[in-house]
Amino acid sequence: MIHKKTYYSKTLSTPNGVVHIEGPVSPETLASLEFHEGLKAFRPAPQQHAALVEIAGLPEGRIIIARHNQTVVGYVTYVYPDPLERWSEANLDNLLELGAIEVISAFRHGGVAKGLLEVSFMDDAMNDYIVISTEYYWHWDLKGTGLSVWEYKEVMKKIMGSVGMEVYATDDPEITCHPANMLMGRIGSRVPEESIERFHDIRFKNRYLF
C-alpha cells in the first residue's frame, strides 16, 4: 500500500498562547524543534523526541504536532501495530495504531488534543485505513488532572469520538485486565470488506474456546 501523506495545519488560540497544529511532519522538521520537557508520559522527553523522529521517517509513520512558537507541546502518532501485539497478526497494511497522544498540562484545556485528531483526519487518505487506539488507564495522567479513572475514560471517549472513533469489544488480555481499558477504532470509508472482517476476527481470538 502506498502511504500518501498530505500536510495540513490549523491554528488555535488558547489561554496560554497560540498553538499551531500541523502534520504529518517530516523527521527533519521534528528534529529541528524544541521538545517540551513535560512530554514524558511514555519515556523521558529527550528519548520520546528521538522516538518520534524515527516514527516520522517510517513509510507509514505519521506524527501530528502541536507547536507553541518553536516548542512541541503536544503530539499524536500513527504507526503500524507493534509486532508483539495481536493487532499486527491481522497482517493488514491498511491498519494503523494511534500509538500515543500527549499534550502538556498548560495546554490541555484549549482543545489541543481534539485539534491534533482533527488535523490527522483532514487527510482524505486516512479513509483508506482502519485506525485503532488501545487505551490503558496506566498511561493516563490521573494525578495531574485530578480525574478518576472513570472520568478520564469518558474524556478519552469524547476526544476520540470527535473524529468518529468508537469503542470495540475485544478479548485481548491487556484490554480486559481492567474495565477502564478499551479498544477504540475508526474504519475508513474506503476500507475493503475483507480488511474489516480480518480486523473483527482479530478482536476475538478465543471466541470458540469453552
What are the key terms here?
Aminopeptidase, GNAT_dom, acyltransferase activity, transferring groups other than amino-acyl groups, Acyl_CoA_acyltransferase, 9-stranded mixed beta sheet, acetoin dehydrogenase (NAD+) activity, alpha+beta, 210 residues, Acetoin dehydrogenase
What does the model show?
By secondary structure, the protein is an alpha+beta fold. It has a single domain, classed as Gcn5-related N-acetyltransferase (GNAT) (Aminopeptidase). It is built from 7 helices and 9 strands, in the order ββαβαβββαβααβαβα. It has helices at 27-32, 45-56, 112-120, 142-145, 149-161, 173-176, 193-203; strands at residues 8-14, 17-23, 34-35, 62-68, 71-79, 95-103, 130-135, 166-168, 182-187. Strands 1, 2, 3, 4, 5, 6, 7, 8 and 9 form a 9-stranded mixed sheet that branches. The longest helix is centred in the last third of the chain and has 13 residues, at 149-161. This is Acetoin dehydrogenase. InterPro entries: AcuA, Acyl_CoA_acyltransferase, GNAT_dom. One of its GO terms (molecular function) is acyltransferase activity, transferring groups other than amino-acyl groups.
